[in-house]
Amino acid sequence: MAKATTTMIVCLSLLRVAMAATYSVTDYGAEADGQTDSTKAFLAAWSSACGAAGPATIYVPAGRFLVGQATTFQGPCNNSAITILVHGTLVAPAGYTSAVNWLLFKYVDGVSILGGTIDGRGQAFWACKDAGRSCPQGATVIDYA
Ligand SMILES: *[C@@H]1O[C@H](CO)[C@@H](O)[C@H](O)[C@H]1NC(C)=O
Fold this sequence. Notes:
By secondary structure, the chain is of the alpha/beta class. Helix content is 21%, strand content 28%. The chain has one domain.
């Protein structure tokens, strides 16, 4: 009985690793209109992905998503395999200053950002601090998937 239970738990764990949970920012209220502040939705999706026991994907669909200044995606997380898959464009707030980092990753390992476009509105805008290995540095457009 105990053995069967253990086997089942092991199987479920493997299944969970194989199928990375996906969290779409639009499910958390992000708007693809380039105007509505979607910061809270991004942070909520991050929170779910960060708390997931296994690999997790944050999905940003097509469209333009406004994400506020100094948005911080903070760990430590329950897994070290978070992928941010961007099909659309991340838009920086108008008038944001290059002195403040726009997007920050703190105390997290293993974040990958794939695809997408960054609209920093002409500023030096991309920062990826204290993060895992896959952070693009100083990119104007990230498209290295
Ligand atoms: C990690 O998982 C535990 C147990 O499920 C949970 O209590 C905790 O809040 C999770 N951590 C994060 C950062 O969400």
